[in-house]
Amino acid sequence: TLFFSCQKKEAIMSVPKIEKQYITDPLVYEVINAVLKMPEISEYKPDYMINCSYILDFAINEDKKAFYTLTEKYFGENDTLNIYNQIEKSKVSYYSEGKINNVKMIDYDLTKIAKSEQLDSLNQSIKKYRPYITISFPIFNKQRNVAHVSFSDDGSVKYFFIKKTDGKWEIITIYSETIVCY
After folding, report:
1. N or C: which end of the chain has fewer CB within 10 A?
2. What sections of the chain are H helices per DSSP?
3. Residue 134: partners with Cβ closer than 8 Å, 6 or more residues away
4. 49-60 as b/e: b if 16+ CB within 10 A
5. pTM here?
6. DSSP string for 120-169
């Protein structure tokens, strides 16, 4: 009698630990500090900023078509791979303390979140820091003179494009603005 054994071996794959990466690009900080001085934004005068640059995906998931149509319009060409890579980088990117003028950073480390309860707890813990804002990682065109940014405070969210002209960043369009009612 001949017996064959087909035992299935399960491969155990370890999930790489996501490491928090601090943003070192001086242009990112130039953009964030310029946004905070813009009249459309500076009226909020925040005390705190949530240290999480990964806000953009929420905007893109809401209206991908508008986002990509506008990036094509304002970036000149739609380099979707470059845009995608910047969005992916933003998911693990955090602002360095002291690089953003006149606001205190609130640690908001998404790399340690494994369960929705932990995110709920993190969201609850930031309520003691008011007023606070969030600003997304700027998504740049290839020439890095136009960027997409989202800005949120306790009561509104703005998605816009800015352009550097004559050494100064200015809003070229706010394409979405939502007022949040609690």
Report:
1. N
2. 26-37, 39-42, 56-62, 64-75, 80-90, 116-125
3. 49, 50, 52, 55, 150, 151, 152
4. bbbbbbbbeebb
5. 0.80
6. HHHHHHGGGS-SEEEEPPPEE-TTSSEEEEEEE-SSEEEEEEEEEETTEE
CA-closest candidate to residue 50, choices 132, 124, 155? 132
CB 162 within 8 A of CB 172: yes
150's tokens: 């989202």
The pair of structure tokens assigned to 86 is 């910047």
- Kind of pairing between the strands at 48-51 and 104-107: parallel
Answer positive or negative: Cα dihedral of 46, 51, 56, 57.
Answer: negative
Give 10-residue mean pLDDT values along the chain (182 residues). 52 56 94 93 79 64 77 85 88 89 83 74 78 89 94 84 97 86 56
